[in-house]
Prior knowledge:
The structure holds two protein chains of two kinds. By secondary structure, chain A is mostly helical. In chain A, 49% of the residues lie in helices and 0% in strands. Chain A has five helices and no strands. Chain A starts with a helix and ends with a helix. By secondary structure, chain B is of the alpha+beta class. Chain B is built from eight helices and twelve strands. In chain B, the strands form five sheets. Chain B has a four-stranded mixed beta sheet. The A-B interface holds A 60, 62, 64-71, 76, 93, 95, 116-119, 122-123 and B 47, 49-53, 136, 138-140, 144, 146-148, 171-178, 180-183, 185, 193-194, 196-198.
Amino acid sequence: MARAFIVAIAFAALIAGAALAQEAGGGAPVPDIPKAQGGHCVRDPAFMRRYHMTMLLEQRDETVHQGIRGGDFSIARCVTCHAVAGADGQPVGYSDPKHFCRSCHAYASVSIDCFECHASKPETPAKAADAAPVSDADLATLDAFLNGGEK
Amino acid sequence: MTRLIDSGRRPASSRRGFLAAAIGAAATALAPGVTLYAFGGEAPPVRAPGEPASAKSRWGLLIDAGKCGDGCDRCVTACREENGWGDSGPAETRPQWIRKVSVRDPASGTKSEPPVMCQHCAEPPCVDVCPTGASFKRADGIVLVDKHICIGCRYCMMACPYKARSFVHAPVDNQKVAAPRGKGTVEGCTLCVDRIDAGKLPACVAACASEAGGAMIFGDLNDRESEIARAAATSATSQLRADLGLDPALRYQNL
């Protein structure tokens, strides 16, 4: 009984705290996403937010099994432009909460397995990325990849 | 006989081959042991963007164990630096993508220290046993692990007669961009596949050529005009455990 009471108190405190935080921020909390280097992403931000995981998945199979490299959607390219400098001025890895991918994935509570194997920071500094709008070809490849097995 | 076959197919290259052979013979007569071709073999051609690896090529290595210096492990350190596998964890479970092996013929007492790594078999047993399809052979003959699919069962490690694969036991940090590797997956020599795709020699071959004995030649086993094929044609080569019929892409001389 006493335990249930403590849990209830804790919940009440949590809800009150969340409400305070929302009021202070003027709305829902938002992730603190670090700014990238090099001008533009390889596609529009809206497209990247929605489809980056699918594009990475598609390109990954082409790269590993067929050796097609240098596409727009390589994870190495992501971490190069989106490198975040730490206190020492060097890019931080995924273990740091400031890491670009982590900042948003932690907020969305979506686990990310890429960096268990892949490097989460660049070996070479970022170059300016070539901005490219979303083309019909992008959407066609994406559609073929997503629905390829069902047709 | 050879000339007839060659001239029917590719007269120009046949003539060039004949000239090279003639000069090579002259050079050998002048200075025994001096080879005409540059150390390390030919770098692979860079493919056009979007062009997949082709089955026309079969990448391989020819290792002259006679040129492997006593205790030289430059190929091993080069691989380690390139691919970021290192001295982490207990010695028993440390990854070994490539290792120096000391062999001695008990009858004659001849010793050699060849490097041994994934032999990139034409009939790879690691691919046969893999339950998920993670272990696969690329079109150009390079045997790889797709770590996205690998479940870490280690059947491939048991199937490989060369002990060429390692298992990653502990979490990995600070991987190389070109060589992703992580806990719970099996790994091994990739023949530096990212370097091959970029038109460069594998790291071990490059290091051996520039800083050690030049014991390794990289090239296309399917191309009869390649340096590796010409070197294999001039003196006998052997495959490790050729009796198993796996047809490895790694050939050895002076074992």
